[in-house]
Design a protein that fits this description.
Elements (H helix, E strand, L loop, with lengths): L1 H24 L3 H8 L9 H19 L1 H8 L16 E3 L2 E3 L11 H4 L2 E3 L4 H13 L5 H8 L3 E3 L2 H11 L1 H6 L13 H4 L8 E14 L2 E12 L5 E6 L4 H15 L4 E4 L10 H8 L3 H10 L3 E2 L8 H5 L3
Parallel strand pairs: 3-4, 5-8, 8-9
Antiparallel strand pairs: 1-2, 5-6, 6-7
Helix pairs in contact: 1-2, 1-3, 11-13
The structure holds zinc ion (ZN).
């Protein structure tokens, strides 16, 4: 944009000087003094910027496609060695545009015959960067679609990829987020030489509605997770009361063998659970459960306030 404005000012000054020169020739000094003080000299109009852009593009094309323009201006076809021969280039005034077979199309003229821009030229990079900024650093395909509405930049996918990879804003936005280092694994998960389900975590899930004779009733799932090898065992609890839980544990031990340590969930992960589950938990007789566990030589560790559940179960 700054290049366009600079060129626009240069063109405007040149135009003004030419006008003064012609006036001087006519020896009309009075008119000259009046016009030099007009407000139009102090600011750029939209037309000035368009003229500047046109002049820049003409300069770039004349510099990069000299042979092609001279050939086309004599109504000859472009040489076979030219790298834009496949584009079927045509001269539209001073500008070199893509030819093609879309003349009868209802598309906008710039879209049908985009302006050809050279590969790796500084002006091509400036145009690409300006469109990228105007699009608020959007993705690669969006940028490609927008640039092809007006320009045909040779080898544009590579140029776009290079631009985005060097753009500071895009790199900052696509940078990987920081990750927190996980805590050490608890001893229960890394103690070897123990049979499966020697140390387990246990949790409730549900309820599920089941059909019992002619009525519907609720049942709860109980999941036991082996802390060392991650195997699971599922049981069904009739209700959420203490005796039901002890029955579930008895069935589990009868099926999987003696358990050394059980780490049940202690409520914080039930915060989002249903009110029914929470109220039922408060009715548990913890002492009764603990006594039942001690009779079976099981270490019942209920207080896990400071141990994250993800550490115990390996989730998250
Ligand atoms: Zn960017």
């Amino acid at each position: 944009m700054s290049l366009k404005r600079s060129v626009a000012w240069i063109l405007k000054v040149r135009k003004e000087l030419l006008k003064r020169f012609n006036k001087k020739k006519q020896d009309d000094r009075v008119t000259l003094v009046k016009e030099s003080g007009s407000k139009d000299c102090n600011r750029l109009s939209l037309q000035d910027l368009k003229d500047a852009e046109h002049s820049i593009l003409v300069f770039v094309q004349r510099h990069e496609f000299t042979d092609e323009i001279s050939t086309l201006s004599t109504n000859q076809t472009v040489k076979a060695t030219s790298n834009i021969r496949k584009l079927d280039p045509v001269l539209d005034g001073d500008l070199l545009r893509v030819g093609g077979r879309l003349i009868e199309s209802k598309m906008p003229e710039n879209c049908k015959h985009p302006i050809i821009l050279p590969k790796g030229h500084h002006v091509s990079k400036l145009i690409l960067r300006q469109i990228h900024i105007d699009l608020q650093h959007s993705g690669r395909n969006h940028l490609l679609a927008r640039i092809r509405e007006n320009y045909w930049l040779i080898n544009v996918p590579s140029a776009v990829r290079k631009l985005i990879s060097k753009c500071v804003v895009c790199r900052r936005l696509s940078a990987p987020v920081g990750e927190q280092k996980m805590a050490h694994l608890p001893p229960d998960r890394i103690t070897p030489d123990k049979p499966p389900f020697s140390r387990v975590g246990v949790d409730y899930f549900g309820p599920f509605e089941v059909k019992q004779r002619r009525c519907r009733t609720k049942r709860y799932g109980v999941i036991f997770t082996c802390l060392s090898n991650r195997a699971i065992h599922l049981e069904v609890a009739v209700s959420l009361d203490t005796s039901s839980y002890i029955n579930v544990l008895r069935r589990f031990i009868a099926r999987r063998g003696q358990v050394e340590k059980i780490r049940p969930d202690n409520g914080p992960n039930f915060i989002g659970a249903k009110c029914e589950l929470k109220s039922a938990l408060s009715e548990w007789n913890l002492n009764q459960i603990e006594n039942a566990m001690l009779q079976k030589k099981i270490d019942w560790q209920f207080n896990l306030w400071r141990v994250r559940i993800s550490e115990v179960y390996g989730r998250g």
